[in-house]
From TrEMBL:
Residues 140-225 have a biased composition (Acidic residues). It comes from Oryzias latipes. The lineage of its organism: Eukaryota, Metazoa, Chordata, Craniata, Vertebrata. Residues 93-225 are annotated as: Disordered. InterPro entries: Glut_rich_SH3-bd, SH3BGR, Thioredoxin-like_sf. Belongs to the SH3BGR family. Transmembrane segments: none annotated. This is SH3 domain binding glutamate-rich protein. Residues 104-139 have a biased composition (Basic and acidic residues). CDD domains: GRX_SH3BGR.
Protein backbone atom coordinates (compact mmCIF):
# COMPACT_ATOMS: atom_id res chain seq x y z
CA UNK A 1 0.00 0.00 0.00
CA UNK A 2 1.33 3.41 -1.02
CA UNK A 3 0.34 6.58 0.82
CA UNK A 4 -0.09 9.50 -1.58
CA UNK A 5 0.15 13.09 -0.38
CA UNK A 6 -0.98 15.70 -2.92
CA UNK A 7 0.85 19.00 -2.41
CA UNK A 8 1.27 22.37 -4.14
CA UNK A 9 4.98 23.18 -4.32
CA UNK A 10 4.46 26.76 -5.53
CA UNK A 11 1.53 27.70 -3.31
CA UNK A 12 1.48 31.35 -2.29
CA UNK A 13 -0.54 30.60 0.86
CA UNK A 14 1.40 30.42 4.11
CA UNK A 15 -1.43 28.39 5.67
CA UNK A 16 -1.31 25.72 2.97
CA UNK A 17 2.49 25.52 3.15
CA UNK A 18 2.32 25.06 6.92
CA UNK A 19 -0.30 22.33 6.65
CA UNK A 20 1.67 20.47 4.00
CA UNK A 21 4.82 20.66 6.11
CA UNK A 22 2.95 19.40 9.19
CA UNK A 23 1.69 16.34 7.31
CA UNK A 24 4.99 15.28 5.72
CA UNK A 25 6.99 16.01 8.90
CA UNK A 26 4.70 13.82 10.99
CA UNK A 27 4.78 11.00 8.43
CA UNK A 28 8.57 11.22 8.42
CA UNK A 29 8.62 11.03 12.21
CA UNK A 30 6.47 7.89 12.10
CA UNK A 31 8.70 6.48 9.31
CA UNK A 32 5.67 5.95 7.10
CA UNK A 33 6.46 5.45 3.41
CA UNK A 34 4.62 7.95 1.23
CA UNK A 35 4.82 9.63 -2.18
CA UNK A 36 4.51 13.37 -2.76
CA UNK A 37 2.48 14.36 -5.84
CA UNK A 38 2.73 17.99 -6.94
CA UNK A 39 -0.48 19.52 -8.31
CA UNK A 40 1.13 22.88 -9.12
CA UNK A 41 3.52 21.56 -11.78
CA UNK A 42 1.54 18.55 -12.92
CA UNK A 43 -1.95 19.06 -14.35
CA UNK A 44 -2.61 15.31 -14.35
CA UNK A 45 -1.99 15.12 -10.59
CA UNK A 46 -4.31 18.06 -9.98
CA UNK A 47 -7.13 16.59 -12.05
CA UNK A 48 -6.75 13.15 -10.44
CA UNK A 49 -6.88 14.65 -6.94
CA UNK A 50 -10.00 16.70 -7.70
CA UNK A 51 -11.78 13.77 -9.30
CA UNK A 52 -11.06 11.31 -6.49
CA UNK A 53 -11.90 13.44 -3.46
CA UNK A 54 -15.47 12.36 -2.51
CA UNK A 55 -18.14 14.93 -3.30
CA UNK A 56 -19.26 15.11 0.33
CA UNK A 57 -15.69 16.00 1.36
CA UNK A 58 -15.28 18.86 -1.12
CA UNK A 59 -15.77 22.53 -0.14
CA UNK A 60 -18.87 24.41 -1.38
CA UNK A 61 -17.10 25.56 -4.57
CA UNK A 62 -16.12 21.96 -5.40
CA UNK A 63 -12.35 22.63 -5.51
CA UNK A 64 -10.41 20.78 -2.75
CA UNK A 65 -7.18 22.39 -1.58
CA UNK A 66 -3.95 20.57 -0.70
CA UNK A 67 -2.84 18.69 1.23
CA UNK A 68 -5.07 15.72 0.34
CA UNK A 69 -4.10 12.21 1.46
CA UNK A 70 -4.85 8.85 -0.20
CA UNK A 71 -3.98 5.21 0.42
CA UNK A 72 -3.54 3.95 -3.14
CA UNK A 73 -6.95 4.83 -4.66
CA UNK A 74 -8.75 5.13 -1.31
CA UNK A 75 -9.33 8.60 0.08
CA UNK A 76 -8.06 9.13 3.65
CA UNK A 77 -8.82 12.81 4.22
CA UNK A 78 -7.57 16.38 4.22
CA UNK A 79 -5.46 18.28 6.75
CA UNK A 80 -8.29 18.78 9.26
CA UNK A 81 -9.14 15.07 9.48
CA UNK A 82 -5.42 14.24 9.61
CA UNK A 83 -4.98 16.70 12.49
CA UNK A 84 -7.90 15.18 14.40
CA UNK A 85 -6.46 11.68 13.92
CA UNK A 86 -3.08 12.88 15.18
CA UNK A 87 -4.69 14.36 18.31
CA UNK A 88 -6.51 11.05 18.96
CA UNK A 89 -3.38 8.90 18.37
CA UNK A 90 -5.16 7.28 15.43
CA UNK A 91 -3.00 8.25 12.44
CA UNK A 92 -2.39 4.65 11.34
CA UNK A 93 -6.13 3.99 11.35
CA UNK A 94 -6.64 7.22 9.40
CA UNK A 95 -4.11 6.04 6.81
CA UNK A 96 -5.59 2.53 6.64
CA UNK A 97 -2.38 0.98 7.99
CA UNK A 98 -1.89 -1.46 10.90
CA UNK A 99 -0.23 0.26 13.87
CA UNK A 100 3.25 -1.11 14.63
CA UNK A 101 3.71 -3.05 17.89
CA UNK A 102 4.69 -0.81 20.78
CA UNK A 103 3.13 2.34 19.31
CA UNK A 104 0.61 4.40 21.29
CA UNK A 105 -2.10 3.49 18.82
CA UNK A 106 -1.38 -0.24 19.22
CA UNK A 107 -1.44 0.07 23.02
CA UNK A 108 -4.73 1.94 22.84
CA UNK A 109 -6.22 -0.78 20.62
CA UNK A 110 -5.09 -3.44 23.13
CA UNK A 111 -6.75 -1.53 25.99
CA UNK A 112 -9.99 -1.28 24.05
CA UNK A 113 -9.86 -5.00 23.29
CA UNK A 114 -9.25 -5.86 26.94
CA UNK A 115 -12.13 -3.61 27.96
CA UNK A 116 -14.42 -5.45 25.55
CA UNK A 117 -13.45 -8.81 27.05
CA UNK A 118 -14.20 -7.50 30.54
CA UNK A 119 -17.65 -6.33 29.44
CA UNK A 120 -18.34 -9.70 27.77
CA UNK A 121 -16.86 -12.38 30.03
CA UNK A 122 -18.63 -15.13 28.06
CA UNK A 123 -16.04 -14.59 25.32
CA UNK A 124 -13.18 -15.42 27.69
CA UNK A 125 -11.92 -18.90 28.40
CA UNK A 126 -14.21 -21.10 30.50
CA UNK A 127 -13.44 -21.46 34.19
CA UNK A 128 -11.60 -24.75 34.94
CA UNK A 129 -13.65 -27.52 36.52
CA UNK A 130 -11.38 -27.55 39.59
CA UNK A 131 -12.17 -23.89 40.33
CA UNK A 132 -15.91 -24.47 39.97
CA UNK A 133 -15.82 -27.46 42.34
CA UNK A 134 -13.87 -25.49 44.92
CA UNK A 135 -16.34 -22.62 44.82
CA UNK A 136 -18.57 -23.90 47.63
CA UNK A 137 -15.57 -24.42 49.92
CA UNK A 138 -14.37 -20.89 49.33
CA UNK A 139 -17.86 -19.55 50.09
CA UNK A 140 -17.79 -21.25 53.50
CA UNK A 141 -14.41 -19.69 54.28
CA UNK A 142 -15.69 -16.28 53.25
CA UNK A 143 -18.68 -16.61 55.58
CA UNK A 144 -16.36 -17.42 58.50
CA UNK A 145 -14.20 -14.41 57.70
CA UNK A 146 -17.28 -12.18 57.59
CA UNK A 147 -18.28 -13.40 61.06
CA UNK A 148 -14.84 -12.51 62.43
CA UNK A 149 -15.02 -9.12 60.77
CA UNK A 150 -18.35 -8.35 62.48
CA UNK A 151 -16.81 -9.11 65.88
CA UNK A 152 -14.08 -6.55 65.23
CA UNK A 153 -16.39 -3.94 63.70
CA UNK A 154 -16.21 -1.62 66.72
CA UNK A 155 -12.45 -1.34 66.57
CA UNK A 156 -12.48 -0.95 62.79
CA UNK A 157 -15.06 1.87 62.99
CA UNK A 158 -12.80 3.80 65.38
CA UNK A 159 -9.83 3.43 63.05
CA UNK A 160 -11.87 4.52 60.05
CA UNK A 161 -13.08 7.59 61.92
CA UNK A 162 -9.48 8.61 62.65
CA UNK A 163 -8.50 7.98 59.02
CA UNK A 164 -11.35 10.11 57.67
CA UNK A 165 -10.20 13.27 59.48
CA UNK A 166 -7.84 14.37 56.70
CA UNK A 167 -6.93 18.06 56.75
CA UNK A 168 -9.31 20.26 54.79
CA UNK A 169 -6.30 22.00 53.26
CA UNK A 170 -5.54 18.97 51.09
CA UNK A 171 -9.03 19.05 49.57
CA UNK A 172 -8.68 22.77 48.87
CA UNK A 173 -5.34 22.18 47.15
CA UNK A 174 -6.83 19.44 44.96
CA UNK A 175 -9.73 21.69 43.95
CA UNK A 176 -7.32 24.52 43.12
CA UNK A 177 -5.18 22.21 40.98
CA UNK A 178 -8.26 20.92 39.11
CA UNK A 179 -9.45 24.48 38.46
CA UNK A 180 -5.99 25.46 37.20
CA UNK A 181 -5.88 22.46 34.84
CA UNK A 182 -9.35 23.35 33.55
CA UNK A 183 -8.27 26.95 32.88
CA UNK A 184 -5.17 25.80 31.03
CA UNK A 185 -7.24 23.46 28.85
CA UNK A 186 -9.75 26.22 28.08
CA UNK A 187 -6.93 28.60 27.12
CA UNK A 188 -5.33 25.97 24.87
CA UNK A 189 -8.66 25.37 23.14
CA UNK A 190 -9.14 29.10 22.53
CA UNK A 191 -5.64 29.38 21.02
CA UNK A 192 -6.28 26.37 18.81
CA UNK A 193 -9.61 27.80 17.59
CA UNK A 194 -7.94 31.12 16.78
CA UNK A 195 -5.20 29.36 14.83
CA UNK A 196 -7.77 27.42 12.81
CA UNK A 197 -9.66 30.63 12.01
CA UNK A 198 -6.45 32.24 10.76
CA UNK A 199 -5.64 29.23 8.62
CA UNK A 200 -9.16 29.19 7.18
CA UNK A 201 -8.88 32.85 6.18
CA UNK A 202 -5.62 32.18 4.36
CA UNK A 203 -7.19 29.16 2.66
CA UNK A 204 -10.01 31.29 1.34
CA UNK A 205 -7.52 33.78 -0.08
CA UNK A 206 -5.58 30.97 -1.76
CA UNK A 207 -8.77 29.50 -3.18
CA UNK A 208 -9.77 32.85 -4.65
CA UNK A 209 -6.31 33.20 -6.19
CA UNK A 210 -6.57 29.75 -7.78
CA UNK A 211 -9.98 30.56 -9.23
CA UNK A 212 -8.67 33.81 -10.70
CA UNK A 213 -5.73 31.98 -12.27
CA UNK A 214 -8.08 29.44 -13.84
CA UNK A 215 -10.26 32.23 -15.26
CA UNK A 216 -7.17 33.85 -16.80
CA UNK A 217 -6.10 30.54 -18.33
CA UNK A 218 -9.56 30.04 -19.84
CA UNK A 219 -9.55 33.55 -21.30
CA UNK A 220 -6.12 32.99 -22.83
CA UNK A 221 -7.28 29.72 -24.37
CA UNK A 222 -10.36 31.42 -25.83
CA UNK A 223 -8.24 34.22 -27.30
CA UNK A 224 -5.80 31.71 -28.75
CA UNK A 225 -8.65 29.92 -30.50
Amino acid sequence: MVIKVFLASSSGSTAIKKKQQDVVSFLDALKVDYTELDIACNEQNRMWMRQNVPEEKKPPNGIPLPPQIFNEESYCGDYDTFFDAKEDNAVYTFLGLPPPPGSKEAEQADKELNGTLEEHPDDAAEVPVEERNGGSHREEEEEEEEGQAEGESGQADDEETEGDTAPAEEEDEEEAEEEEDHNEEAQAEEEEDQEREDLQSEEEEELQQLEEEEDVEEQEEDEAE
